[in-house]
Amino acid sequence: MKARSHYDTALAAEYALGTLRGPARRQFERRLERESALGQEVNRWQTVLGHLDNSTQPVAPPDRVWQKITQSLPAEKREQKTFRWHYLGWAMAASFAGALLFQISQQPPELQAIAVLNSSNVQQGSWVVALNRSKSELTIQSLNAGSLPADHSFELWLIPPGQKPQSLGLIQASGKTRIALAAERLTAEPTLAISLEPKGGSPTGQPTGPVMYSGQVSAG
Description:
Blueprint: H1 2-17, H2 22-34, H3 36-55, H4 63-72, H5 75-79, H6 81-106, E1 112-118, E2 126-132, E3 137-143, E4 152-159, E5 166-171, E6 176-180, E7 191-198, E8 211-216
Antiparallel strand pairs: 1-2, 2-3, 3-6, 4-5, 4-7, 7-8
Helix pairs in contact: 1-3, 1-6, 2-3
């Protein structure tokens, strides 16, 4: 059971990283439809990786590095490099998962992830929402979210159970947006949604455009 748990953690990390592809990704997505715990693991990884994205700078290795690696492989291994690199990616994700989970358990983050807002279109990415209780503040950040059409704005809505949507304001299409919000407003575990509105926001105080992303708050 422990081995299966580690395997699923690695798959969830690969899925969140975008390195799980082809039939393996489709099979994993079928499991997501029926295994809520697996979905929570993916959401957690999306949150963790979103925070890491802010503190790291991408570095592209020179072409000569990849050429040297390829040339150092025996001929038969060069033909199998696609499979081997896929396996290596899984192993790296598994190791990364274990190390990062240990680090997080030893040093709880200031922000508590409370929701991941997804689109019905997998290609449009998602948004991570975190709560800073001490500052009564939400932080929302896009993860490979779709681009914002010209002359439009993204607007964030809080939807308590059985009530009308309440605007929390406009959010940036990329980077972070911080919004003042008392934690008490999240105790009923409302839904958060992002709608596409005319530039400057909804003119009516209620969503007028399509809902692009949504997810339920889990305040923990």
